[in-house]
Every structure is written in structure tokens, then in C-alpha cells.
User: What shape does this take?
Amino acid sequence: MNTYSVTNRRMNGRRGATALTVILFAAMIMLHPGAVFAQEDESPSGEAGLGIGSGLLTLVYFPVKVVYAVLGGVVGGFTYALTGGDLETAKTVWEPSFHGTYVITPAHLKGDEAVRFYGVSPYEDD
Assistant: This one.
């Protein structure tokens, strides 16, 4: 085994560990944002931190949500075709995958707004 392949494997392992750490941190914040940011900091540095944090979390969250929406569109299309054109059945797949939160904002991190991975149709009555 040459030195290049050993070094390459170590680097891939570090990248995987870093990616896993970022994903776990993002999941922790999305599941319970009030626990992480318990104190509301109205200072400019606190607001900047929330802005940077929301931007970084969006970099992780947005691609996952888009992939979910695209797969929901494909599965909903198959549902529509396999049910003989039943639009209501297809909508039960499309609406949760298409609607919802795509961008994490500081309000999400403060706990003022909920992060909705599974969307709620804007056409339904509350």
C-alpha cells in the first residue's frame, strides 16, 4: 500500500466526520432551538451570530429539503399515474414535500417560528 492511498483514506475519514458533526449540530438546533439559544441576545453581536448561524444551517438544510421536494414530486407523479389520474391522492404526496421551510432564519433559531420540514398546504383551512 502506498503512502498516497493511506493519506487519502485519512482525509476522507476526516471529511466524513466533519460532515457528520455539522449534520448532527444542525439536527440538534432544528429539533429544539429554544434549548440551544435559551437567552435572547439583542446585542448586535448576538444578532450577527444568529444571522451567521442561520446561514450556515441553511447551507446544510436547504439541499436536503430540495432533494425531499424533488423526490416527493417524482413519487407524486407516479402516484398520479398509477391511480389513473387521481389528483387528490397525488396532492397528499406533493403538498407535504413541496411546502414547508426552505431557509432557516434567525427567528427559527430563537424559537419564534417553527421549522416545518413537512409542509402544510396553504390552501387548507386552519
The mean pLDDT is 77. DSSP finds five helices and no strands in the chain.
